[in-house]
C-alpha cells in the first residue's frame, strides 16, 4: 500500500529576533523574518489541502455516506477553527521560536513543553521518508526503467537544498507547490458544479445529474457512528492550519495579519473541502467513491475528471499528488528542524544543533532530521502496510495531542491574563467566547484522540506514542535533575 495519505503539511514558523535582541545571545545568526502575507495565506491553504483530500475524501464518503461526509468535514473545520483561534491569540501575544512547545512550557509546564516539541518533531521525522518513497513510486509509473531509489535521492536532495538555502527560498517554493493544489481543487469544484447543473456534458448523459446521488441511499446509509469514527481522518485532513497562528513570528504586523489570515483561510478551506465532497457525492455513487486509496486511478478526482471528459486525468492527478508529497516533505523538514533548533536554543540539546548558516538556517538540525527519515524510506520494502498504518496513526495522534495542548495553553494564558488585572480589550487579538472556545476545542480533540484507541489497526501506533510521551517526560526529569546537581 503506497502511503499517499501522508502527503500533508504541518509548518512551524519560528520567530525572528532582532540581531540586537538580548534574548538571542549565543546564536551565530538570527533566524530570518522572511514570510510575507502572500506566503502565509497560500501556505496555510496548501497546508490543509493534501493527498488526504485527493485520495482520502472518497473513503470518508464511502464510510459515512454523502450527507455524513459533509457533516464530518464541517465538524473538522469547526474544530480546526477553534484551535486556530486559541493559537492565534497565543501567537500574536508571544511570537516566539518553538511556538506551541514554548507555550506549553510556559502555560502548562516545562516537561510538557519539552514533550510537545519532541512530539511534533517525531510527527515529521517519522513520515518524511514515506513522502519521498511515495513520490518516487509515482514517478516510476511514468518512467518504469528508472530505479525508485534514484528518484528518492533526487527528491530528498531537492527538498534539502530548498531548506538549507534560506527561509525565503523555502517560503517561495511552498507558495508555488501549494498553488498547484489550490488551482486543482478550484478547477474540480467549478467543473463539477457545471456538470451537476448540466452546463457541460457529464458521462454522455442528456440530462443534468443534479443532486440525486446525495440522498439516493438515504441520509445516513451506514448510520451515525461512521461520522464519529472517521473524525481522526477528517481532523488529520485539516491539520496544517495551525501554521497560521505560529507564523506570527515571521509575519509583519501579526496583530493585523494573523486574525485576517485565520478568518480568510477557514472559510476558504470549508468551501474547498465541503465543495469537493458535494461535487463527488453528486457525481459518483457513494459506494464507489472510495474503492481504494492506494493508487492514483482510484482517486475520486480522477473518476470525475474522466467522466467530464478531461484528457490525461490520471497523469494530471499524478503530477498534483507528487507536488503535494514534495510540499509535505519540504514543510515537514522545515518544521522538524526548527523544533530541534528550539530545543538546542533552550540548552536542552547540544549547542551544535543551534548552529545556523549565514542565511539563518539550522544546518545541523536539518541534516540530522533528514537522516531520521531513513526508516520511512524502508516502508515500501519491509512490511509496507504495517509500517504505513503505524506511521499514519503516529502522525494523526501526535497532531491531535499538539492541538489539545494549544487549547489548554490558551485557557491557562487567559486566566493568568485576567488575574494580572488586565482585560480582553488589552489583547491585540483575543479568541472569542472564552472559555467556551478552548474547552470545546479540548473536548473535541480529546474525543478524536480516544477514537484512535478503538481502531485495532492503529493500536500499535497509539501505544508507541504513549511510550514516546512517557520517555520524553522521563528524559526531561533526568535532564533537569542532573542540571540541578
TrEMBL record:
Chief place of localization: membrane
Residue spans crossing the bilayer: 40-58, 70-92, 104-122, 142-164, 176-203, 223-244, 265-286, 316-336, 356-378, 390-413, 433-454, 460-480
Q: Where is the Amino acid permease/ SLC12A domain?
A: 39-483
The lineage's top-level taxon is: Bacteria
Location of this chain's protein in the cell: Membrane
Pfam families noted in UniProt: AA_permease (PF00324)
Membrane-topology annotation of the record = Multi-pass membrane protein
Entry keyword Oxidoreductase: no
GO CC list: membrane
The record, for InterPro entries, names: AA-permease/SLC12A_dom, Amino_acid_permease_CS
What are the record keywords, sorted? Answer: Membrane, Transmembrane, Transmembrane helix, Transport
- What's a GO biological-process term for it? transmembrane transport
Q: What PANTHER family does this protein's entry cite? A: GABA PERMEASE (PTHR43495), GAMMA-AMINOBUTYRIC ACID PERMEASE (PTHR43495:SF5)
| Official protein name in the record | S-methylmethionine:proton symporter, AAT family
Organism from which the protein derives: Acinetobacter apis
Amino acid at each position: 500500500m503506497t502511503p499517499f495519505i501522508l502527503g500533508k503539511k504541518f509548518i512551524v514558523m519560528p520567530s525572528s529576533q532582532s540581531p540586537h535582541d538580548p534574548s538571542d545571545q549565543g546564536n551565530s545568526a538570527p533566524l530570518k523574518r522572511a514570510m510575507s502575507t502572500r506566503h502565509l495565506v497560500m501556505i496555510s491553504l496548501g497546508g490543509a489541502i493534501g493527498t488526504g483530500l485527493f485520495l482520502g475524501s472518497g473513503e470518508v464518503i464511502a464510510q459515512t455516506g454523502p450527507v455524513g461526509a459533509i457533516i464530518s468535514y464541517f465538524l473538522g473545520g469547526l474544530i480546526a477553527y477553534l484551535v486556530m483561534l486559541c493559537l492565534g491569540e497565543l501567537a500574536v501575544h508571544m511570537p516566539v521560536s518553538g511556538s506551541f512547545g514554548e507555550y506549553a512550557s510556559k502555560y502548562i509546564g516545562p516537561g510538557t513543553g519539552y514533550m510537545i516539541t519532541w512530539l511534533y518533531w517525531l510527527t515529521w521525522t517519522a513520515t518524511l521518508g514515506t513522502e519521498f518513497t511515495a513520490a518516487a513510486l509515482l514517478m516510476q509509473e511514468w518512467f518504469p526503467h528508472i530505479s525508485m531509489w534514484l528518484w528518492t535521492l533526487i527528491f530528498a536532495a531537492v527538498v534539502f537544498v530548498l531548506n538549507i538555502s534560506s527561509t525565503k527560498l523555502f517560503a517561495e517554493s511552498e507558495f508555488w507547490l501549494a498553488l498547484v493544489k489550490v488551482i486543482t481543487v478550484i478547477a474540480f469544484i467549478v467543473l463539477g458544479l457545471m456538470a451537476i447543473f448540466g452546463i457541460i456534458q457529464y458521462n454522455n448523459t442528456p440530462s443534468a445529474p443534479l443532486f440525486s446521488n446525495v440522498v439516493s441511499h438515504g441520509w445516513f446509509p451506514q448510520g451515525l457512528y461512521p461520522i464519529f469514527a472517521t473524525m481522526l481522518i477528517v481532523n488529520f485532513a485539516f491539520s496544517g492550519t495551525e501554521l497560521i497562528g505560529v507564523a506570527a513570528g515571521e509575519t509583519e504586523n501579526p496583530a493585523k495579519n494573523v486574525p485576517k489570515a485565520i478568518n480568510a483561510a477557514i472559510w476558504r478551506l470549508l468551501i474547498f473541502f465541503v465543495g469537493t465532497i458535494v461535487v463527488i457525492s453528486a457525481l459518483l455513487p457513494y459506494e464507489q467513491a472510495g474503492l481504494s486509496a492506494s493508487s492514483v486511478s482510484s482517486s475520486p478526482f480522477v473518476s470525475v475528471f474522466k467522466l467530464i471528459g478531461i484528457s490525461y486525468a490520471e497523469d494530471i492527478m499524478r503530477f498534483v499528488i507528487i507536488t503535494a508529497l514534495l510540499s509535505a516533505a519540504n514543510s515537514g523538514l522545515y518544521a522538524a528542524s526548527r523544533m530541534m533548533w528550539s530545543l538546542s536554543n533552550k540548552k536542552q540539546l547540544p549547542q551544535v544543533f543551534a548552529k545556523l548558516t549565514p542565511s539563518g538556517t539550522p544546518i545541523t538540525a536539518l541534516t540530522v532530521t533528514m537522516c531520521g527519515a531513513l526508516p520511512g524510506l524502508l516502508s515500501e520494502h519491509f512490511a509496507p502496510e504495517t509500517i504505513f498504518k503505524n506511521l499514519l496513526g503516529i502522525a494523526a495522534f501526535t497532531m491531535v495531542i499538539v492541538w489539545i495542548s494549544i487549547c489548554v495553553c490558551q485557557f491557562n494564558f487567559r486566566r493568568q491574563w485576567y488575574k494580572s488585572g488586565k482585560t480582553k480589550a488589552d489583547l491585540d487579538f483575543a479568541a472569542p467566547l472564552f472559555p467556551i472556545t478552548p474547552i470545546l476545542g479540548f473536548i473535541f480533540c480529546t474525543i478524536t484522540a480516544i477514537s484512535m484507541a478503538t481502531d485495532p489497526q492503529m493500536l500499535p501506533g497509539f501505544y508507541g506514542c504513549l511510550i514516546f510521551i512517557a520517555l520524553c517526560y522521563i528524559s526531561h526529569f533526568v535532564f533537569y535533575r542532573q542540571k540541578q546537581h
